[in-house]
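If you are new to this repository, start here. Below is one unmodified record pulled from the training split, so you can see the exact layout before writing a loader.
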Amino acid sequence: MLHILFFFFLAFVSSSSNAMVNDFCVADLKLSDSPAGYPCVPPAMVTADDFVFSGLGVAGNTTSIINAAVTPAFVAQFPAVNGLGLSLARLDLAKGGVIPMHTHPAASEILLVVHGCITAGFISSSANTVYVKTLKKGDIMIFPQGLLHFQVNSGADGALGFVSFNSPNPGLQITDFALFANNLSSQLVEQTTFLDDATVKRLKGILGGTG
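And here is the target side for that same chain:
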């Protein structure tokens, strides 16, 4: 029995991380993702182009309800980060733009402000302590994994930032959309948020929710 358990332990270890045994593992996005990442494209098919991503050099479209745009370079957009424990994104915030309260369940985040002023903050899970700071060009701020956080353009012009994550697929849950952009019943939203019916219905109407 012991040798069978040892075999399964070895099988788990050998499949749990491509980065442990390979120089790299460019993701084969045609196959399914797993907790260990995507399967690898055969090394013979990998070229230097696979390790270059040019999508962060162009400003995102900020004509949205949040007056902001996030351009990700996660594993789905940049397969070379598969298994390497890192990824990037670009934040474009027009005047008055906001990245709403959200979490990344699978990663911590670091923000670098490149242009403008961004007021950013997060809320601790233990005591709901709020940590907020207005950042200027060259400033960086850390947002610990899984904690609610936000970024707001607090300057007179547009703002630009780049964020890095310690995961190729950090995940994203935006609080407003989780509450008001789906079919969760208004009654349950009201009971769990202490908001009145008119407010919930109005927010569902803005964000496209039903129920």
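Two things worth knowing about this chain: The helical segments are 2-16, 175-180, 186-193, 197-207. The CA atoms of residues 113 and 193 lie 33 Å apart.
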